[in-house]
Every structure is written in structure tokens, then in C-alpha cells.
């Protein structure tokens, strides 16, 4: 029963040197993200970032069926990147993974570095890169925003799954060839990516409908040069 | 700080609604979650036949998951999204998880945030 609710990589799947290497990469990157995130955190966005983190924790619990006998769940990389930016987003997913590992015994302790690199770094930044590339559609219409969120989430999910393939190729335990792991990981995560895309689009769409100023991707969009903007970016409260 | 502005009240209302959605998802919707292995577990279990035994799961065949080790905190009070291993407690575990996460993340982001400077 125990493993059926586990959602992340356990200890022992990759060897100690690989775990150490990715642990070090994770620590360095998360530290860098904490420095860069400060620029995106203020009195308005900090509480939002806290709630987005809790929301990702909650939605990750909801495994949805993808094939008979196989399920998937949200990773959340593109979702957090679009809502709170990639640097804060890396911290959000890292917090979720730490809480899951320490409190819920989901995701191994030595595997924390690999899980952070895959979901909090690759998933977040791949999703953000795609979202930025498509931002001109996202700012144009609601449909464009939903499509951008879907594609960014799909790409982030598949690329995050490739992180595991790389770690397995580097120092994976026996039991399956790297080719088999690659084919299965990408195939399954292409299906999971569809669910990830739908959840991300629905969530981003809901936030944008009521509080577009809390969508980082829209808020940080470059302003068209022809339009003169009043100084400052106040939220209209006059405060 | 003086009385909150209209925008401030609107903001708190949005944040409270967001928290409620997370609590409903973790506390209620979690009972509907699929119990099939997720993408990664499906890959690591590939090649094995899983049978439930009183001693736990038995993996017959050859698969990556045979090399997985037990979680060092696997006997913790909330391990495997249950409260003390109790059946049907996933919703309570989920609510605890949401509250712990929002406090931890909210506190950390509050510490990291920029104070509104005169140039902002």
C-alpha cells in the first residue's frame, strides 16, 4: 500500500554519487533562486506565493488516471512560474518537495536533490521559457493565455521527466535499460502533460479572470513602445 | 497601517478564496484520487508483478523499484498521507499539509520580500 501514494523518486533509485551531485546542484540553484526571488517578492506577491505553494501541494495529491493501471499528478512547474515567476516558483516547488519528503515520507531524503532539480528547476524553468516565448499570445486574449499555459505546462512536464532519465543514465540502479526508461518516461509524461496542461490553464485562467495583476507572466510583459505609460506600476488603489 | 483600502480587502478576499480551494482539494478531492502508480512509479515498476502481502508489497520479476529503499521517515505520524496510518485519513493529512505548507512558504516569502521602497 505504501508506495501507491508516493509521488516522487525514492532513495536507492540512483547511486550515492549521483544523489550527491544533484543534491549539490539543487542547493546551489535554490540558493541562487532565493537571491533572485527577492526582486519579485513584495507585500502583494509574497502572500500570493505562499498560497500558490499550498495550492500546488494540494493539487499534487490528486492523481488522475492516464492509462489502465497508471496515473499522473500535477508537477506544477509552469503553473508557479506563470503565477509568481520562475525564481519564486523554484522556491515554491522546493518547499512542496521538502514538506512531502519530511512530513509525508513521499520522495526520498537522498533523492531530494534529484527531485528538486527535475521538478523545481527543470520543470519550472522549461515551463517559464515556453511561457515567455508565447507571451505575445498570452497578453492578447484569454484564449491565448490559456493556450500558453497549456503548452508551457506540457513542455515543462516532459522535460522534467527527461531529468530523471539523465539521472538514471548517470547512476541508476539496475532493473531496466536507459532506453526503456527513456521511452516509458517520455511516453507517460506526454500523457501526464495533457492533464498538467489542463490544470495549469484552468488555474491561470481563474486567477487572471479575477486578479490579472497577480499573474507574473502578464505583469512583467514588456509594454508596447508606442504606448506611453504613466510612471509607476500602481495597482490602482491610490495607496 | 491605516484601514485597508478597497483593493486591500479585495486582495485578502482573493487570498482567502485561494486557500479555501486548496483546503477543499486536499481535504475532499483527495479521496477521489487514483491509487494507480504515477508516471515515475509505473516506469520503476516496469517488469515487476506487484502482490500485496501482510508484510508489505512483494515485487516479482526485474524492475528498478526493487532497488528503492524504505523512507527513513516512513513511520512518521503523517507518512503516506495518512494520520497514523489510519484508513480514510488522507483528507485530514492533506489539510494538515496545506496548512503547514502555507505557513512555511508564507513565512519564508514574507522574510524574503522587499520592503516597499520610495522608488517603487
Strands in their spatial order, largest beta sheet of chain A: 1-2
Radius of gyration of chain A: 18 Å
The coarse silhouette of chain A is: globular
Low-confidence stretches of chain B: none
The number of distinct structural domains of chain B comes to 2
Q: Tell me the count of domains of chain A.
A: 1
Helix/strand layout:
The complex is a heterodimer of chains A (239) and B (120).
Chain A: H1 16-37, H2 45-60, E1 64-67, E2 70-72, H3 77-84, H4 86-104, H5 112-133, H6 135-138, H7 142-171, H8 178-210, H9 216-219
Antiparallel strand pairs in A: 1-2
Chain B: H1 6-27, H2 39-44, E1 48-53, E2 56-61, H3 90-112
Antiparallel strand pairs in B: 1-2
Helix pairs in contact in B: 1-3
Subcellular location (chain B): Cell membrane
Domain PDGLE (chain B): 13-114
Transmembrane segments (chain B): 90-112
Q: What would the keywords be for this entry?
A:
A: 239 residues, mainly alpha, Arp2/3 complex 21 kDa subunit ARPC3, 3% strand, B: 120 residues, two-stranded antiparallel sheet, elongated
Summarize the structure.
The complex is a heterodimer of chains A (239) and B (120). Chain A has a single domain (10-219), classed as Arp2/3 complex 21 kDa subunit ARPC3 (Orthogonal Bundle).
Structure commentary:
The complex is a heterodimer of chains A (239) and B (120). Chain A is built from nine helices and two strands, in the order H-H-E-E-H-H-H-H-H-H-H. Chain A has helices spanning 16-37, 45-60, 77-84, 86-104, 112-133, 135-138, 142-171, 178-210, 216-219; strands spanning 64-67, 70-72. In chain A, a hairpin with a 2-residue loop joins strand 1 (64-67) and strand 2 (70-72). The longest helix of chain A has 33 residues, at 178-210. Chain A is globular and about 55 Å long. The model of chain B has no long low-confidence stretch (mean pLDDT 90). Chain B has a two-stranded antiparallel ribbon. Chain B folds into two domains: 1-33 and 73-120, no CATH class; 36-68, no CATH class. By secondary structure, chain B is mainly alpha-helical. The two termini of chain B are 18 Å apart. At the A-B interface, helix 2, strand 1, strand 2, helix 4 and helix 7 of A face helix 1, helix 2 and helix 3 of B.
Amino acid at each position: 500500500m505504501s508506495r501507491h501514494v508516493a509521488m516522487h523518486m525514492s532513495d536507492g533509485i540512483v547511486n550515492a554519487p549521483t544523489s550527491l551531485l544533484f543534491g549539490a546542484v539543487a542547493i546551489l540553484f535554490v540558493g541562487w533562486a532565493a537571491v533572485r526571488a527577492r526582486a519579485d517578492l513584495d507585500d502583494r506577491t509574497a502572500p500570493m506565493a505562499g498560497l500558490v505553494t499550498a495550492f500546488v501541494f494540494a493539487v499534487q495529491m490528486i492523481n488522475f488516471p492516464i492509462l489502465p493501471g497508471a496515473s499522473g499528478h500535477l508537477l506544477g512547474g509552469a503553473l508557479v512560474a506563470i503565477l509568481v515567476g520562475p525564481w519564486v516558483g523554484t522556491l515554491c516547488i522546493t518547499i512542496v518537495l521538502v514538506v512531502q519528503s519530511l512530513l509525508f515520507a513521499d520522495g526520498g531524503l537522498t533523492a531530494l536533490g534529484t527531485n528538486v532539480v527535475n521538478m523545481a528547476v527543470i520543470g519550472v524553468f522549461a515551463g517559464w521559457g515556453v511561457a515567455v516565448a508565447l507571451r505575445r499570445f498570452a497578453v492578447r486574449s484569454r484564449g491565448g493565455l490559456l493556450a500558453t499555459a497549456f503548452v508551457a505546462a506540457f513542455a515543462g512536464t516532459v522535460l522534467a521527466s527527461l531529468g530523471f532519465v539523465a539521472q538514471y543514465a548517470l547512476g541508476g540502479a539496475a532493473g531496466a535499460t536507459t532506453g526503456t526508461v527513456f521511452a516509458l518516461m517520455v511516453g507517460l509524461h506526454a500523457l501526464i502533460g495533457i492533464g498538467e496542461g489542463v490544470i495549469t490553464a484552468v488555474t491561470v485562467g481563474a486567477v487572471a479572470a479575477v486578479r490579472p495583476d497577480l499573474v507574473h507572466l502578464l505583469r512583467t510583459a514588456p509594454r508596447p513602445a508606442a504606448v506611453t505609460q504613466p510612471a509607476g506600476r500602481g495597482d490602482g488603489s491610490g495607496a | 497601517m491605516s484601514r485597508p483600502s478597497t483593493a486591500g480587502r479585495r486582495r485578502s478576499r482573493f487570498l482567502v478564496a485561494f486557500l479555501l480551494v486548496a483546503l477543499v482539494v486536499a481535504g475532499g478531492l483527495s479521496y477521489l484520487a487514483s491509487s494507480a502508480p504515477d508516471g515515475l512509479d509505473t516506469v520503476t515498476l516496469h517488469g515487476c508483478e506487484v502482490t500485496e502481502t501482510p508484510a508489505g508489497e512483494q515485487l516479482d520479476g526485474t524492475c528498478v523499484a526493487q532497488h528503492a529503499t524504505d523512507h527513513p521517515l516512513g513511520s512518521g505520524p503523517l507518512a503516506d498521507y495518512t494520520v497514523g496510518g489510519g484508513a480514510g485519513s488522507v483528507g485530514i493529512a492533506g489539510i494538515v499539509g496545506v496548512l503547514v505548507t502555507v505557513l512555511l512558504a508564507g513565512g519564508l516569502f514574507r522574510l524574503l520580500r522587499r520592503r516597499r521602497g520610495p522608488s517603487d
